[in-house]
Amino acid sequence: MKKILVVDNDKLMLELMNNILSERGHEVVTAEGGLSAMDILKTYTPDIIFVDLVMPNIEGKQLCKIIRGMPELKDVAIVILSAIAAEEDIKIEEFKANACIAKGPINEMGKHIVKIVDELGLTPLRGLPGETIGVPGIYSRNITKELLSIKHHFQIILGKISEGVLEITAGGRIVYANSIALSIIEIPEEKLLGPHFIDLFADDDRHRVAELMKPSGDKPQITTEEFPLRLNGHQVTLQFLPIDEYAATSLVILNDITERLQAEEDKKKLEAQLQHTQKMEAIGTLAGGVAHDLNNILGGLVSYPELLLLQLPEDSPLRKSILTIQKSGEKAAAVVEDLLTLARRGVVVTEVVNLNDVIAEYLKSPEHEKLQSYHPGVHIETRLEKDGLNILGSSTHLSKTVMNLVSNATEAIPEKGRIVVTTENRYIDRPVSGYEDVVKGDYVVLTISDTGTGIAPDDIEKIFEPFYTKKKMGKSGTGLGMAVVWGTVKDHNGCIDVQSTEGKGTTFTLYFPVTREKLPEDKSHLAIESYSGNGESILIVDDVEEQRQIASGMLKELGYSVVSVSSGEEAVEYLKTNKVDLLVLDMIMDPGMDGLDTYKQIIELHPGQKAIIASGFSETARVKEVQGLGAGAYIKKPFLLEKIGLAVKEELKK
Known about the structure:
This protein is an alpha/beta fold.
């Protein structure tokens, strides 16, 4: 006895099959269509499945694919029952079926069915007939040929149009998807057909989809582009189209507007950035002209009081008034200096600067001590990278940037609070989006965070504009501080990001490109001989050419023999015919294998292969997994000669 499932939308055919097979002692279960069959197969595993090809909703071809995609049904035999065998050449292998029987005269068809069922129990599946059984004696019908031709014609059209097309039942289950819909949803057809359409959406969008799916007669239901729905990371609009009043299904048109919305957003962002840049340049030009004239005027206000004071006795009643004039002139001169900085637009960045030194010097300065005396409840904490890399820039302008940011942070804290000043070497290997986009590369990152009142969302876009300030008139500042910060960052080819929450605080993150040039002063380091090599062979695996060049140059300088490749695949190929003493392996490589997958393949070729791991990101679970497989130290990019030298030396000693 065999367990047999028969799938056909014709009730008479189901009854006939049940009679034929039951009389032979087999257990027969019937399903009136593909959806019903899928529900039955969730809890029932037959030995043989008979499938009709032409059925409403899910057709036989799709049902066969779904069955073959279910691991628990991989050994089930599939037999196709075809009423169109004389009109269409059925290729059994395309359906992954074991046999195909033509529907024809009942007596002949019954014999073929019984014979196939018996043979499936005795013959290996691959030994069954490859051609449709029972075709002789069935005459081709022109009307069927025409209908099949029309059907194929429409399938080609649906496959070529730019919108996704789904067909769903009155109960909301998916029974058809064209190729575009499959690409948007990113679920294989055999897994997509059958489940409910509404389950594709996030919980907070499902109520909208449910409203659209409610019967509306012959009137289409449409979502607008102003309020798109989220579908598997895509922004889509939906259009529900009833086929006709008698149809049990309706069409859903998916229009993926993700790229267009992103393009429009990018365009708006670029336009805003261009307007901001043009505005800053225009203000800078104006500021430069004003500053030039003011400088000439202020010369007398600053210089003459000093001369007058030299000529007056210490007890002169005029000294106090003249000192007031002098201090006012000095304040005005500071404003002019800010205007000139804003107008300069292009600091000559030829001086090698270490940001840690700039910060340390500012925090010891009289200006900072004065600021702290006014705000004793504000605690400043520094977390500076021990081996901070250098940048090219102007220490004067960078110091003023630090001063303005720390001053603003201090004044944003009403009474007691904390400011954290952080520097970090960071390798960005994927663009970072924020207030400004940060491109790939090595950076020294300056972060200044406070626990102050925060900045309102509407104000963040304006804080870098000259003379824009929320401070009380006369309390402090000129409204130029943040404009100077923005100008200095731009002059140093850097980027700035702002994150703020009202009532919690603000974080400014400044990115400055790294230079490999050294400071004029000597720094105390370990002797280079202590981590130099002796000709050992090293393979560098990194997808970024600049990183390969930097690492290669450093290791060659240390006396190693170095080869570099640009992907995990290349590394595996190289090591099929070569051996190396050590790998320097990047963790993130796009496209292709990452560091973990690369190392797994390499240790199959060379068990125990020594390696150190490099990445621009913090340690991750995948880094720990690589180390668990035998890799050594993890070094964070950007590369430093001493760090990479010590890591290599230590690993080679093992």
